[in-house]
Amino acid sequence: MRGVEMASTRRTGAGGEEPPVHVPVLQSEVVALLRGDAPLGLEGWIVDGTLGAGGHAAALLDACPRARLIGIDQDPEVLVHARRRLARFGPRARVRHARLSTLDRVLHEEGVTRVVGVLLDLGASSLQLDHDARGFSFAVDAPLDMRMDPDRPRTAADIVNRWDEEDLADLFLYEGGEPRARRVARAIVESRRRAPFLRTLALADLVERTLGRGGSRAHLHPATRVFQALRRAVNEEGEELRAGLGLAENWLVDGGRLAVISFHSGEDGAVKRFLAEGARAGRWELVTRKPLRPSPEELQRNRRARSAVLRAAIRRRRGAQEGRE
Ligand SMILES: C[S@@+](CC[C@H](N)C(=O)[O-])C[C@H]1O[C@@H](n2cnc3c(N)ncnc32)[C@H](O)[C@@H]1O
Q1: 194 CA from centroid of ligand 1 (Å)
Q2: What's the confidence (pLDDT) of residue 82?
Q3: Which of 138, 139, 260, 262 has the fewest CB atoms within 10 Å of its CB?
């Protein structure tokens, strides 16, 4: 499987000396695909469904002077950075704490009726991955949490300590792409009989002892895929993506543009199938027949971009049954 994320080498967090940053991935490509050929770019509301620190959002507002943007993110901590970054746009930028699956409610509450662009930049922000206390990384000891939205009831520890062996194995295999998922699940279930897993390093050490280091993917820590799978389950990333794509389809006007950046092959597969099916039914026109990937220059600047894949499409509404616009 392509697209597993590794822990960062930069460490930050409460009391950390370096301010955390997130470098937007494929930024100029996203802006070009969303703004299109019109001289002033998009005019109307753009939705950034995964606002993060607001890097893409700021670039889009700069490139489309007649656009306004609503940005949502499920993580209130990253929104502090987004609000600061977007302050210079005044009322052109609105920021809300929300999940993709609740976008309908947010847009109704904000009085938005016409959406001309949607961006989904999936996965986690460096602000989350590099934050020592939040448990996303196997490189730092922290509570086994991984919730992007602190209002979610279930942490990674809940999953590791409560799911049965078969469900854990399926999770590591299908959401993390871990080929030796069954072995890891068995080791977890045996070990948690003695003591529950509460900290990241206890889990990372067990996975490392179970799988060993080495093999053809020796550059990856053996716990990489297990941690990715847990993060995806804790944050219900598959369900949220399906909801986000459906909402983009419902809200975009005829000619409205969608761009999606994925970091995981399963995620990109879901986007590809959704758009291909929509294109066959005349609901979408594909802009990227083949997905875009970061240039070697971008990869040199930002290692985290290495598994990014960008797809874009234009909404087509044909016929009276397709309401908006
Ligand atoms: C890769 S970052 C986005 C970075 C952003 N484009 C930028 O330029 O800073 C992904 C962000 O999406 C948020 N996110 C992920 N899934 C979400 C969901 N279902 N609903 C709302 N926000 C979500 C995460 O909390 C994270 O901040």
Answers
A1: 37
A2: 96
A3: 139
